[in-house]
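Thread title: Can someone regenerate the structure for this chain?

I was given the following input by a collaborator and told the matching structure tokens would be attached. They weren't. Posting the sequence so someone can regenerate them.
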Amino acid sequence: MSLAITTFIEALADREQQLLPETAVDAPIYEFRLKDPQKEKFKYTPRCVYFYYLRLEASGALTIWKHFWPNVDPNNSKKWLPINNNRSNLKKIITERATFARKGQGQGFGFGDTWKHKSYIMIFIDEKAWTLHKEDHDKAPVVFNISQGSKPNHSFFDAEDFVIDMPDPDNIGQTMQCSAVSIVNHMKKEDEEDLASGDSEFFHFDLFFEVAPSNGTASSMTVIIDPTGTNQGPPEDPPGLIDPPAPPPQP
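Best answer:
Regenerated them for you:
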């Protein structure tokens, strides 16, 4: 590997380490709030999913499909039901949404959304050589870039990393492993209260990926995608801060 590329990769690693403290030192995305008995203001289980599907095209362009998915009638939020947050259920949803997106079915392109619901935000990359940074590697896949005008993180928690088995389009009958992350957007202000009417908070994210070279001989590179999104209050969700007990996890 050339000195220039090595220096570039080291610079990206340095940037990640510089940005991590800006996510608010006491508020990493992997902190569990839904299951923390001390965090009573974070007990609302989301009823919907904002799903983002990423795929690198042969032209080199990055396709980003987005899809909004409540588990029942999308036109009547009063009917929405809590979406169980155990890992097996979240993995099932990611797999189903990714399969749906592979068919070119979505509701739009890109990021830059205005979020109006307490929700799961799921990001899936349909590439076997692209891997989101992971908690067990001491690297965050999502960093809040304060230098670009983002609010520090006080709303996005309960993150979980996933490896999703998908049919390999290049090798019929075989599967490939794809990287994904699920994060809960609690729609909170810095004081942990819900966003009120008229409240709007802008977030600028850096998504960190490790990309393996096609020949498998060189070291992987870090690639950054920098989407944005805005939380708009108040959350448009059905009432019910105290949810019924979740069923036991699937084996």
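The longest strand covers residues 156-167.
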